[in-house]
Amino acid sequence: MRILSHLFENNKRWAASIHEKDPTFFERLSQQQNPEYLWIGCSDSRVPANQIVGLLPGDIFVHRNVANLVVYDDLNCQSVLQYGVEALKVRHIIVCGHYGCGGVQAALSPTSLGRLDNWLRYIKDVHSLHRGYLNALQDPVEIHNALCELNIIEQARNVCQNKIVEDAWAREQAIDVHAWIYSIQDGILRDLGFTVTSRSEVQPLYTQAIESFIKKPPHR
Ligand SMILES: [Zn+2]
């Protein structure tokens, strides 16, 4: 008996159902990929990129890690970003986090998680940057939600300030960067109001997003 045979059976059924709807689907996709979107999301099993936006294989180039971080010296994320922008020429880069994020929750906890602490450090940095606002909040759920949202905006800014994206904008390659949050409680995506289409927009739109966030948090 094949190990994990139910997954192979699921796969056969899935491939057959796609083929039934569109007999040349896999043949076409095997020639090339031409995705319009690059998705940078959390590894959480409850936030699968393609399913939650109703897109098929071939539609989204995906990078996922714990808490959807965009880190300058992360070879993995930077390689995906470079390939997505320079080779695939994606039109949109979406940084999508989610409420109830285990990575964000762990960063708020004083308990050590070993090697993962090094990764969570980047979320703690986001917390430090916005500590004036976060420390004024009382409710732990509200603090968690706010840090999830602020982390996404900060990571989207990291995409915008990345050399790969800056160079693309400098040669007038059209790329829009988006900051979205997903609710695992109701399956709904929300835009966090930080959508950037050029280098000159980054700082003013970031300031605007943070100011309006502090005045009227989107999770309330
Ligand atoms: Zn998460």
Please characterize this protein's 3D structure.
The chain has 220 residues and is an alpha/beta fold. It is 50% helix and 13% strand. It contains ten helices and five strands, in the order H-H-E-H-E-H-E-H-H-H-H-H-E-E-H. It has a five-stranded mixed β-sheet with strand order 2-1-3-4-5. Helix 5 (102-108) crosses helix 6 and helix 8 (140-160) runs antiparallel to helix 10. The termini are far apart. The model has no long low-confidence stretch (mean pLDDT 95). The structure holds zinc ion (ZN).
Short descriptors:
13% strand; 220 residues; 10 helices; binds zinc ion; alpha/beta
Helix content: 40-55%
| Distance N to C terminus | 52 Å
Content of β-strand: 5-15%
Adjacency order of strands in the biggest sheet: 2-1-3-4-5
Number of helices: 10
Briefly summarize what is shown.
50% of the residues lie in helices and 13% in strands. With 220 residues, the protein is an alpha/beta fold.
Write the layout of secondary structure elements.
Layout: H1 5-21, H2 25-31, E1 37-42, H3 49-52, E2 60-65, H4 75-87, E3 92-98, H5 102-108, H6 116-129, H7 131-134, H8 140-160, H9 163-170, E4 176-182, E5 189-191, H10 202-215
Parallel strand pairs: 1-2, 1-3, 3-4
Antiparallel strand pairs: 4-5
Helix pairs in contact: 5-6, 8-10
This protein binds zinc ion (ZN).
